[in-house]
Amino acid sequence: MIKYEVPKERLNSFSQVLDKVSEIVEKVRKEGDRALVELTERFDKYKLISVKAPQEEVENQAKLLDAKVREAIDEIYLQLEEFHLSIKPPNSGGGRMGIEYGVIWKPVNRVGIYVPGGAKTYPSTLLMAGIPARVAGVKEIYVSTPGEKVDPAIAYISLKLRVKELYKIGGAQAIAAMAYGTETVKKVDKILGPGNVYVQAAKFLVSKDVGIDGIEGPTELVIIADETADPRQVALDLKAQGEHGESTFLVLISPSQKFLDDVKPYLDDNRTYYLVKTKDLDEAVRVANELSPEHLSLAVKSPTELLRLVENSGAVTLGKTPPAIVDYCAGPDHILPTNGWARFKGGITVFDFLKPVTYVIAEKPNKKLIEAGKVLADYEGFRVHAESMGARYD
Ligand SMILES: NC(=O)c1ccc[n+]([C@@H]2O[C@H](COP(=O)([O-])OP(=O)(O)OC[C@H]3O[C@@H](n4cnc5c(N)ncnc54)[C@H](O)[C@@H]3O)[C@@H](O)[C@H]2O)c1
Ligand SMILES: N[C@H](CO)Cc1c[nH]c[nH+]1
Ligand SMILES: [Zn+2]
Known about the structure:
Elements: E1 2-3, H1 18-31, H2 33-44, H3 55-63, H4 67-87, E2 92-96, E3 99-107, E4 110-114, H5 123-136, E5 140-144, H6 152-160, E6 165-167, H7 171-180, E7 190-192, H8 197-206, E8 211-212, E9 220-225, H9 231-242, E10 249-254, H10 257-263, E11 273-277, H11 281-291, E12 295-299, H12 303-307, E13 315-318, H13 324-328, E14 354-361, H14 367-379, H15 383-393
Parallel strand pairs: 1-11, 4-5, 4-7, 5-6, 7-8, 9-10, 9-12, 10-11, 12-13
Antiparallel strand pairs: 2-3, 3-14
Helix pairs in contact: 1-2, 1-7, 1-8, 2-7, 3-6, 4-5, 5-6, 7-8, 9-10, 14-15
Bound molecules: nicotinamide-adenine-dinucleotide (NAD), L-histidinol (HSO) and zinc ion (ZN).
The site of nicotinamide-adenine-dinucleotide (NAD) has 31 residues, from helix 2, helix 7 and helix 8.
């Protein structure tokens, strides 16, 4: 179906399922593994014989992986690893006014990665979360992904990433289990990973007790195209992301009515597409910034120029670059903010697995600076704060 207005709402918003997901989270907190077995049967229609995938199953499943896919994974691993290594921050230090200070970047100790596994399987997502975790130096990586048998590619990547434990659970119940722990599932410090509205609602709810990377829900793609773009390629990019399911958010913006008309015949599947005509490219970018999409493609004659005007998007592809390249093998992550979170959050990087621990050494600080600190402490009424600063240096 084709619509011609600027979409006001995402096709899905996890607030619609918050009540239901809250019950799931509470059930897992109370009943632990027993809840996982029951909810898996209810939502995934398989009997959970063991919550944790036995090491032998992971190894045997990995062996089933076709050599071609294994080589592809190995090739992609190097590209993604290099991207995160290239932006990994060094520890740094400095100082002034007799005070030495600095930042030591410390990895999160125990991380839980959610890998979607409903309608499709997403081993690429395990690469996208596991590699920056490894580059950051995370000690313990746990993975939850639905499926009666571990997907061979997920098994292979789990071994490559030295995943400590892999749980065969999905949805909100998997998020709850990693957030609070059960008899089998380890309680983690931070949960990362994309997923459907149930998964994102659960992450939102547990974020009061555990770290989360953000909201990465159903896929979103906005394409800005001018008359120089190829209508068939643009339609292909939209339909590609449409493979993620009916909740995918697909928008094409163009100042050329002819271009929009030329694309329409190619959009021949049962997805909902928004085709938006604007006055010019400036207005097109304004609409895109307002939508703050997960993926943004600039299929225009001068994309680098237009890129300067982009404010909100998880990942931008320029010119002929297909958005799907980010999904698999470009280097930057495909775990990207949705539901408008791109206004204040980017895609996953090594930074999501690091904490900036700052330090201060003030043996002989500048008197004027300490005095200023004491004055402000007194102004706030924190007299003993002021005294504690003075005591050392008066
Ligand atoms: N934003 C990103 O970075 C990004 C990256 C990859 C994938 N995605 C998105 O992730 C999503 C994956 O969704 P999916 O559904 O295929 O897999 P999923 O793993 O996110 O969800 C499947 C789970 O949902 C639970 N579930 C299903 N129906 C339910 C119901 N009625 N009530 C409660 N729980 C229910 C089941 O337990 C199941 O295991 C897609 O929308 C895709 O676009 C987003
Ligand atoms: N486009 C998805 C992010 O929204 C990522 C992905 C994984 N596999 C295929 N695509
Ligand atoms: Zn995709």
